[in-house]
Design a protein that fits this description.
The chain is mainly alpha-helical and about 80 residues long. The chain has one domain. Helices cover about 85% and strands about 0% of the residues. Helix 2 runs antiparallel to helix 3. The longest helix has 28 residues. It is elongated.
Length: about 80
């Protein structure tokens, strides 16, 4: 599947899911009192949040904008009302 065919909604769902998962991992690392909790916080939690941000930025680049004719039709309908 091409990146342009996916659409911005799916990109945003994936990026928000990654960010939420990263935040949950970081919260879990705060509750765990062990030296490995820092590793979990930095490498897993921060990596998931960073990946979510990267997916969001990719969505801004590869998302397909609606055809110009559809935009003109919507604008024409709003100005007539």
């Amino acid at each position: 599947m091409k990146l342009r065919a996916i659409g911005i909604r799916r990109f945003l769902q994936v990026s928000s899911g990654l960010i939420i998962l990263g935040l949950l991992v970081e919260i879990a690392s705060f509750l765990w009192f062990h030296p490995l909790s820092f590793v979990l916080f930095i490498f897993v939690g921060a990596a998931l949040i960073g990946l979510g941000v990267v997916v969001y930025l990719i969505s801004l680049v590869f998302a397909v904008s609606p055809p110009m004719r559809a935009v003109e039709e919507v604008q024409g309908q709003t100005t007539k009302v």
